Structure formats: C-alpha cells, structure tokens
C-alpha cells in the first residue's frame, strides 16, 4: 500500500499522509484496509465497524442513520492505544483564518483531504500513538 492508495475512509479523496497508513495495530489496519462491499454504501455496510476521517485525523464508529455521522473514539478498540487528537477544531480555525465558509465556499483541494495538516511535518511526527499501560484481555 502506498500513500496515494486510498483506504476505506470517511471523506473524499485518497489519504496523502504516509503516517496515516501506519495505524496503531493490525486490527485497526485490517478494518480500514478491507475492501468495501460494492453493493453497499460503506456507511451502511454492517461489516464496517470503524472509519477514519483523514481531513480531521479522526477515528470513529459509524452511526447507521442513513448519513455520514460517527462517534469519534479516542482509543483503539483492538489494542487500546490512545489515538491521535482530532484536528477538527484546527481545520475550522484554518477555514476562519482563510475567510472560507466550509458549507458555502469551494475549498482548496488540500482542505478536502489530510494534505492540509501534514504539510511541513516530518513523516509520522504528528501521529503519536500511546500504548496502554495495561491491557485487559479475556482469561
């Protein structure tokens, strides 16, 4: 898999950041790299249990209400690692700084993907996963 190859994500366009392709564990990678069912919208596919929104660097559990809502999660459901902090507020702050209305204006392409937040950052430097101090597993 390359940085330009899309993974199942909640948002338009491919994932641009190589660091995003290194999710916290094999369980998370397996969920996000699985091939979606061609007959179903990924938001309606019951086999999709977690989504990733690269624009905001957010992971979430999809809400099956016919839309694209999700509950943002802070920890990996498989390994317990703390996930990167959401960049949603920073994205909206950047929209304000640029004088853009995200609902009315045409946005620059870089703001429709993860390209806006990884510019100038070292590969993977901004995406620290924190391993849990203790893992609880079934006996």
From TrEMBL:
Q: Which Pfam families is this protein grouped with?
A: DUF6980 (PF22400)
Give the top-rank taxon of the lineage listed in the UniProt record for this protein.
Bacteria
| Residues in DUF6980 domain copies | 22-119
Q: What is this protein called?
A: DUF6980 family protein
Source organism of the structure: Dactylosporangium vinaceum
């Amino acid at each position: 898999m390359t940085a330009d190859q899309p993974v199942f994500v909640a948002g338009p366009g491919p994932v641009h950041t190589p660091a995003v392709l290194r999710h916290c564990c094999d369980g998370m990678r397996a969920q996000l790299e699985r091939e979606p069912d061609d007959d179903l919208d990924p938001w309606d596919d019951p086999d999709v249990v977690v989504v990733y929104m690269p624009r905001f660097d957010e992971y979430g559990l999809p809400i099956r209400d016919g839309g694209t809502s999700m509950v943002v999660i802070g920890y990996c459901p498989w390994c317990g690692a703390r996930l990167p902090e959401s960049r949603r507020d920073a994205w909206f702050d950047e929209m304000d700084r640029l004088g853009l209305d995200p609902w009315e204006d045409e946005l620059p392409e870089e703001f429709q993907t993860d390209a806006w937040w990884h510019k100038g950052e070292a590969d993977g430097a901004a995406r620290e996963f924190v391993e849990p101090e203790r893992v609880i597993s079934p006996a």
